[in-house]
Write a structure and sequence with these properties.
Helices cover 73% and strands 0% of the residues. By secondary structure, the chain is mostly helical.
């Protein structure tokens, strides 16, 4: 009678299965597949159904993209203003009398 000996591939598969289970992936996939199974009118594309239920197919909201662009522009302007402020302070320091002279007046 021969006994089955698990090999390295079996071990890796079992490790991966435990990882998916621990991270909640198996539960999530099971819920989505059950929802598809219980769907009275099956969708034309099961894959689109799964993507939609998992939130992967939601198109990027144009407002969000516009706000991201605006934030990036504001960051650039902010950095430019900081640099300009630094330069202006440096120039101003050239024309201001030293602190000791101000107190004597």
């Amino acid at each position: 009678m021969s006994r089955y000996k698990p090999n390295a591939a079996d071990f890796k598969r079992e490790q991966f299965r435990r990882y998916l289970e621990k991270s909640g992936v198996l539960d999530t996939l099971t819920r989505v597949l059950v929802a598809l199974y219980e769907e009275p009118e099956k969708p034309n594309s099961a894959l689109d159904f799964l993507k939609h239920r998992l939130g992967a197919s939601a198109p990027e909201n144009p407002e969000i993209e516009a706000l991201r662009c605006e934030v990036a522009e504001m960051k650039e302007k902010y950095e430019a203003v900081l640099e300009e402020n630094k330069n202006l302070k440096s120039k101003l320091a050239q024309y201001e009398p030293p602190q000791e002279e101000k107190h004597g007046e």
